[in-house]
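JOB MANIFEST
job_type = single_chain_structure
chain_count = 1
residues = 212
[input]
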Amino acid sequence: MGSKYISISVIKRLPRYYRFLGMLKDAGMVRISSRELADRMGLSASQIRQDLNCFGGFGQQGYGYNIESLQNEIGKILGVDRGLKTILIGAGNLGKTIVGEMDFKTRGFDLIGIFDKKESLAGQILSGLPVRPASDIEDFCKENGVEVAILCIPYKEAAAISDLLVETCGIKGFWNFSHYNINEKYPRVAVENMHFNDSLMTLCYQVINSDN
């Protein structure tokens, strides 16, 4: 790929391709055309071809795509085998749910530490990891080469912790549930913001306009 620019809209579609191809593989399918894949995903065949051509293209004319091979190639692009060292900050209800439900290892991440400022949570075991005091974050990150942080903390706490993580700990990316705009101060840090309220209001709009 080199330094070729790939739009974020293309990148955001890659996990959908990866997921759909996995479902097709599990169903016993071996190959699929761009048209059939497009119909299943609600996209256009030309969109799929354009997206995949950003990375060299993987199909054969008259044959289509080998499903397992294409999924593997997309997985390599996404880095699902990278095992990025990751910590989670905020072991409340949301943090516990994420730790318990997410399969980080098959998505490119290795969750190695969980932290919370509440002393009452220290020592609790979540998915095999002990909850550590927030005061240990800096030393832990430096000792373990942590690259990614998941923030499950209130907005008012996110500014200070993101400063520590970026400037002192060298964190390169955030999965951010705090609603704090990390990129306003650190535009070159990778941030994936999760806004449940925005998603819920989008659903509301779709429901009330579904008959229009």
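[summary]
The first strand starts at residue 31 and ends at 32.
The two ends are 43 Å apart (CA to CA).
exit_status = 0
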